[in-house]
Amino acid sequence: MKKIFIFVVSVCMGLGVLFSENIFPDKVHAEQGDGNFSINVISVGNGESILIQCGGENMLIDAGYSTIEEEKGNGSANALSKYLMENGQLCNDERSRFEEEVKRLAEENPNNTVTNFLENLGIKEIDHMIATHPHYDHIGGFIQVIKRYAGADTKVWWSQPLSDNSYFVAYQSILRDMLFEKGAIDPFYSCNNPQPGDYIMLGKGNDKARVLFLTSSENDGARGTEEINNESLVVRVDYKNTSYLFTGDLQREGQLRLLKNAPNVLSDLQERALNGDNNLKDLLNVTNILDVDVLKLPHHGMLNLGNLGGSSKTSGNIELFNAAHPSISLVSTNGDSGMNNYSLPGIRTRRDLSYSDIYSTATNGNLKVTTDGTSIFVNGSPLEKHYHLEKPQNFSADIVSNGVELKWSPVENAQQYRVYYQESPNDEWHWISNLSPDTTHYTFDDGIKGKKYWFVVRASYYTDGAWYHSDANFSNEITYPAPSKEFSGFHAARVFESPNASKYWSYAPYRDVWMNRMTKYNGKALLLTRQMVKDGNTTYYSAYYNGKWVGYVNSYALKNTVTKDTYQGWGTYEDTFNTPNPAKYWRYDPYKNKWLGTMTQYKNKKLDIKRQLAKPDGSMYYSAYYKGKWIGYVNSWGFQ
User: Where is the Fibronectin type-III domain (predicted)?
Assistant: First the structure.
């Protein structure tokens, strides 16, 4: 039964790194497992082989290809694997030849990756073997395993053979003969394969794990690859307070069938528990038999889209993942699906399991899971997280005094927001800014008066060396407003002040080049317009000095103290100079630092205002034009 708290420890670069999160109390990925239960996911490329040990007994689920070279049929690899792959279909009159050749090659090639792994562990005998389904990436190594590690009491659970003329029938026959040679009386536990609800107890004495079958397979003649995968034997293993689900190559159709039948299987098991089966008593407290702590991903982490189609935002495993909701996921793969560089596990699969730590043999090699029945430890590093990012909701674009204000609601797991504009609904996106995840608003102040804009925002996150994005949200059509007295475009005036000014460079993001050292601007007041976050954390501001753009400037060297005349804004609007005492107002030339004359002749005249100047005494001046001619900077108090 799944608990309510989780305390995570993962191994990274050989060091134990501790992460804690109050999610599932009493469930622990502990620093080490000192119990008698362990799971080894053997690294066999895009095959699968899993060794489970408990209470002095060993169980092997599948024994797939031994190496990547064997998967590809490389002639220099194991000759038996190569021959098996080259003889996928047989007629009845070829059966005898096939069996003789397989037996000969097994004698000449007694080892593979699985047997070598078992030998290195010092294992003498496998007590139980499960072949989830008859594909060679899952059963291709069983001949050598049985030849070396089966005993007279070894039990084998096998799904039904495909048809009378299938090479799988011949393969099963060879395995059965080998078991008879070992002295087995009934080498296959059931001729009709295990049924849902069948179980065995793995281990001796009181230290046992329950191995429970949740599916069976049907022999309905020759079938395709997907049909065979969908009849994989699915096994749930329980050891004390921990639970594990092994899913073979189950694809979407088989998963949906499992989900449909699981409640009935659980109900039957609970009835048996009430009727006296003490090995099932713990299931009386279970409401979902698929809810486990550890999930072995079906079909090597494939998307298994089935009837969802390629445009689905989730994998075809989503319903099974939601039912299992594992804190740990294991996947046996070499990381490559062989389909247009589609990696395994698939990105949509990883997004569906963003709450789970996924451990892959592709990145860790052999995986080992150990537990004492409460704590769970995996000897590897989980894959980086992928997320289903929702597009930013409640996106609004409103005209304000200094431009267009964009707002949206926070998006869970977003590491950045990206804002763009379009000049028509079908136009390309023009990048505006990248914003930190705690910033959910932006003021666009660089538009052209009367021009129409459409704005775009989307959430992003970074993993596996690349950025991934949510769907975009789009604004309605916005007509850019005329600038107001706030002077659209300028947010602040600050002094660039650093003892190491030569180490700072201004940056041009549109060309992605560094421009000039900031030495000559040291101690100068700069006007800052818009903000950019570069490399995920460093803030830059678009800076102007004396009306000339100098580039984007690192915020670290910008001080708030402004000690000299500072231009605060850009923009154009009309206003009337209508003070009753115009003779007391003088026009000012900041470049020559002199007064030009009184404003008497401009009383009640409409002036064109271009930009704004702040003086250290707190007074504000506007750069003013009359009938197209510049007349100087005019004190703002004269505008009523």
Answer: 391-482
Per-residue pLDDT, 17: 30
Per-residue model confidence as pLDDT tens digits over 144-202: 999 999 988 888 888 766 555 466 777 788 888 888 888 877 766 444 578 999 999 99
Beta strands, E only, 470-536: 473-474, 478-479, 492-496, 505-508, 513-517, 524-534
The CATH number corresponding to 396-479 among 2.60.120.400, 3.30.565.10, 2.60.40.10, 3.30.465.10 equals 2.60.40.10
Contact 422, 431 (CB under 8 A): no
In this structure, the number of other CB atoms found within 10 A of the CB of residue 640 comes to 9
**Which candidate, 247, 252, 315, 295, places its Cα nearest to that of 48?**
247
Distance CA 367, CA 440 (A): 41
How many CB atoms within 10 Å of residue 630?
13
**Structural class in CATH, domain 492-559:** mainly beta
For residue 31, give the amino acid letter. E
User: What confidence tier does 477 reach under pLDDT thresholds 50, 70, 90?
Assistant: very high
Angle between helices 79-86 and 95-108 (to 10 degrees): 160
Q: What's this model's pTM, rounded to 2 decimal places? A: 0.71
Whether residue 374 contacts residue 241, with contact meaning beta carbons closer than 8 Å, is answered with yes
- Give, in degrees to the nearest 5, the angle at Cα 550 between 548 and 555: 130
At 489 the three-state DSSP class reads coil
Helix (H, G, I), strand (E, B) or coil at 42: coil
User: In CATH, what is the architecture of 566-638?
Assistant: Roll (2.30)
Cβ(514)–Cβ(505) below 8 Å? yes
Domain 5-378 carries which CATH code? 3.60.15.10
Question: Would you call 161 helix, strand, or coil by DSSP?
Answer: coil
Residue 88: other Cβ atoms inside 10 A: 10
Q: Which helix (H) or strand (E) holds 96?
A: helix 95-108
- Here the tokens at position 358 are 């996924």
Structure tokens at 231: 């009849």
pLDDT tens readout for residues 51-97:
999 999 999 999 987 555 555 544 446 788 778 777 767 777 788 88
Biggest CA pair distance of the chain: 119
